[in-house]
Every structure is written in structure tokens, then in C-alpha cells.
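All the exercises in this workshop are built on plain-text protein records. An example says more than a description, so a record of this kind follows:
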Amino acid sequence: MDELQRLLALVPAKPARTVSYGHRGNRGRMSFLGQSVDHESHLERDFLLIMQFDPTLAAIRAQPFTIPCVGANGRQTRYTPDFLTIHKGSRPRGFVVEIKPMADLRRDWRTLKPRLHAGRTFAHENGLAFELLTERQLHRWPLDAYHFLAPFRTLPDDDSMEEHLVHTLAGIGPSTPQRLLAAAFMTESNRIQAIPHMWKLVATRRIMAGLDEGQIDIRTTPLWIDRDSDWRRCNPYSRKHLMQTETDR
């Protein structure tokens, strides 16, 4: 069994805990790899949005398992991490992820510390990394751009138009959305029709985009073709900036 298969075997078939929706507006679901993944906060939603644009993501599970531990009061308790993510690549990796606002960490640190320690111990025992993320890491990513692009990921295919856009950009070299549309189509009506498909190509990484500013601008956002690059080269925040290292804690 290779490392990716070993990590995928750790993903449980069902969440260990069911999210109750009630009337809280910050709870919801996002679609991943043919399944729905629950979130319980705005920060968790932002994390899931980032994961939607991570080309290395192989599997994700919310509330993946419950870990017994001893609480701050010395009594037995349980801890359920927010997510388990598995990532493919030359060095497959798995992450047990806990997401907390900085204010909650400061306020509840005494209660949270033994639970987070149990999560880190469990992760290391299973060949996983344990990651504690706050808004400091998550808000480094171009979330506004991701929110804009996300709906285009499921746009129905128009193979002829999309291939024409990719071929045109490959021919003219690095460009902008406005210039690409002008080079690809003679009429204004065809350019307007092509706009959603251009954003779909960006959202699915067939066309790369410079998202450093966090905003999509049809006049100025850089576009290019680079089949050997991945999404993380489109902005200055690679996954190593999202996930803390041991020295950051």
C-alpha cells in the first residue's frame, strides 16, 4: 500500500458527529469530490472554500473522529477535530485540522489546550499532521476572488468555446481577461457569451490567474497558460503559509 492509499484508508465513511443546523446562519454545506461537507462557522466556510481550489486535495471529512482525552478539570472528556484532509502529490500528506477564532483561543485556552494536545498526539500516532488555523492564516488567501470564481466551477461545458479561449491565450501569451476576449472573438455578443466560460477556465485552473490582490478585475487581472504550475503559484500564500509549522505555535 502506498502512502496516499494508507492516508485515504484513514478517512471514515461518516462523520463522528452530526452538525445541527437550527437557525444559526453560519452553518452550511459545500460540495467536494461528490459529497457534501458541513461547516459550523464562517472561518470553517472560508477554509472549505480554500480547499475547493486546492489541486492536491484527495479527500476531506468534517468531524472525522472523536478522541478521548482528559480535560483541564482532570475529568475524562472527548474532542472532535473540525476536519481531516488528505492531499496527493509526490509526498502525500494528511492533516487533522482545527479552526478557531483568535478571540476564542485566548478566552478558552485553558479548556482547549488539553483537547488540542490530544488531537496532535492522535495525529502523530497515525502519521498525520495536526494544524490549528485562525483567521490569521485563512485571511491571507484571496477569498473574495475565490467567492467570485466558485459558482463558475459547475458551469456546463462548452468545449468549443473553452478550447478556443485556451488556444488563443496560449498563442498570445500572458494577457488580461479583456484582451483575451478581444483576441478570441470579433463581436461584442460573442465576447459577452464567453465571459462565464473564461471564468470557469480560471476557476478550474486550465487558465492561471494572478490573484495577489484578492480581487478579480476584467481589465487588469493577469492570465496565462502554465500546465506545469498549480493554483498555489497564482498567489503569494502557499499551503505552508496556511498550515502552521511547529515553530509557529
Q: What stands out?
A: DSSP finds nine helices and ten strands in the chain. The two ends are 33 Å apart (CA to CA). Strands lie at 28-32, 35-39, 57-62, 67-70, 76-79, 83-87, 93-99, 129-133, 208-209, 223-224. Residues 143-234 form a domain with the Arc Repressor Mutant, subunit A fold (CATH 1.10.10).
